[in-house]
Design goal:
Helix 1 packs antiparallel against helix 5 and helix 5 packs across helix 6. The chain folds into two domains: 264 residues, no CATH class; 29 residues. It starts with a helix and ends with a helix. It is elongated. The strands form three sheets. The chain has a seven-stranded mixed sheet with strand order 4-5-2-1-9-12-11, with no helix packed on it. With 298 residues, the chain is of the alpha+beta class. Helix content is 38%, strand content 34%.
Length: 298
């Protein structure tokens, strides 16, 4: 029974202590340059890395005590970056994979390879990332900006689910021993053990309802012009806003995509066209008036 209690508290720790908030603020300029600000806060923020690269300025990577004795340490990452175009953007959603793979036993390596089908090297195959793609399509008077950002989680959810099933199986086994003793005492028969399908369903339910919702994302993307198409939750003038959780990722919780399109008038070209038109009209009327004056003088 004591072992079952220990595993129960381990599950509570897994599901409750690593809540993490990701906040992204992105500004797209007319020339295609991108400004980006990221903040990662919470008790699980230390499991993620600050972005790297010459375009990034790291404002803070710090830890401080939580709000209560049971709150653990609160961690924070804050960085700002500027990129001339989307191809220069480097990920700011980076899981610290080394904390997971640093001291793997051969048994665990075999488990990852054979049971979970994770190819080696694990440090490159396991992890998280995000990529930004910005396309500009310029017509005579309007420029369309098409922004897409894809968040990806590679193998981490499968590993989490696998370990959670193992923990639950141990808890169920310990609880089963007690149930067997009580059932046998009453009816003389052993209680039926939970099936693998039942353990799978319970593990998936806990992951979706208790663990993945702890990882919360907020992203704001501001573009030139007017937003005309997006999958965002809200639109505030030129800004598309998304609020989602790790449980909202698709394809076995492996990806989440932000999409937004805006259209902005080419003010400089429009102004130049208007001035050119006025110049043509002025020249036309000036020439015509000069012609009339010449005829009158004759």
């Amino acid at each position: 029974m004591r072992r079952a209690v220990l595993y129960f508290f381990a599950l509570l720790f897994l599901s409750g202590c690593f809540e993490t908030n990701f906040n992204f603020k992105t500004t797209i300029h007319r020339n295609g340059a991108i400004e980006r600000e990221v903040q990662i806060n919470g008790r699980g923020a230390d499991r993620f890395l600050a972005p790297e690269g010459p375009q990034w300025e790291i404002k803070a990577v710090e830890s401080q005590p939580g709000p209560s004795l049971l709150g653990g340490m609160q961690h924070r990452i804050h960085a700002k970056g500027r990129f001339a175009n989307s191809s220069l953007f480097t990920s700011d959603f980076r899981y610290a994979v080394s904390s997971l793979t640093a001291n793997l036993t051969e048994e665990k390596r075999k488990e990852l390879r054979d049971e979970l089908k994770v190819p080696e090297p694990f440090d490159q195959e396991i992890g998280t990332s995000n990529q930004i793609e910005l396309k500009r399509k310029r017509s005579l008077f309007v420029t369309a900006y098409s922004y897409q950002e894809v968040f990806q989680i590679r193998h981490l959810i499968a590993i989490l689910l696998h370990d959670l099933k193992k923990e639950l199986a141990l808890v169920q086994t310990a609880a089963q021993g007690q149930a067997d003793a009580q059932t046998k005492e009453v009816s003389g028969e052993n209680a039926a053990p939970p099936s693998p399908a039942e353990v799978e369903a319970l593990a998936r339910k806990r992951m979706i309802e208790e663990i993945l919702p702890k990882f919360q994302f907020h992203s704001e993307v501001t573009l030139p012009g007017k937003v005309v198409k997006t999958n965002a939750n809200q639109i505030h003038e030129r800004t598309a806003v998304w609020d989602f959780r790790a449980a909202d990722f698709t394809d076995q919780f492996s990806s989440y995509t932000l999409e937004v399109v805006s259209r902005a008038p080419n003010i400089g070209l429009i102004s130049a066209s208007v001035l050119a038109l006025l110049a043509i009209l002025w020249a036309f009327f000036f020439t015509r008036r000069k012609g009339h004056l010449t005829k009158s003088s004759n």
